[in-house]
Amino acid sequence: QVHMVESGGGLVQAGGSLRLSCAASGIIGYINSMGWYRRAPGKQRELVARITSGGSANYADSVKGRFTISRDNAKNTAYLQMNSLKPEDTAVYYCNLETSLQGFWGQGTQVTVSS
User: How far, in Å, CA of 36 to CA of 85, rounded?
Assistant: First the structure.
């Protein structure tokens, strides 16, 4: 059974930092990529950052230069370091994992940035 545990969300003031973690277990198959999406109130879910097994990363334009995604393949864990946070970064952040067979989602973690 696949289990994904997200942590690190919370309330922070604008300009502050948070680090999200996503640990996956019970995965069958090769993990192609891990990533983070977010859904702000009243908006559709959007890609924040994604990293492949080889370490290639891509980011949403809105977070480039502020967020950094990394991955520990041995631990099936992905991290999202978020710096210089803005109120518009407020959202529920979801971890996503794609294997050669299917995709999986975490339960989401709330990030709230106050102005």
Answer: 16
Residue for token pair 């995604």: 69
Q: Are 96 and 37 in contact (CB under 8 A)?
A: yes
Return the amino acid letter for 25. Answer: S
**Distant-in-sequence, close-in-space partners of 98: CB < 8 Å, separation ≥ 6:** 31, 32, 33, 34, 35, 104
* 92 closest CA partner among 54, 45, 39, 56: 39
Q: For the chain, what's the residue count?
A: 115
CA torsion through residues 45, 35, 63, 109, sign: positive
* Tokens found for residue 76: 């099936």
Mean pLDDT in each 10-residue stretch from start to end of the chain (115 residues)? 92 98 88 95 96 95 98 93 98 95 93 97
CA dihedral 101, 99, 104, 91 (to 10 degrees): -140
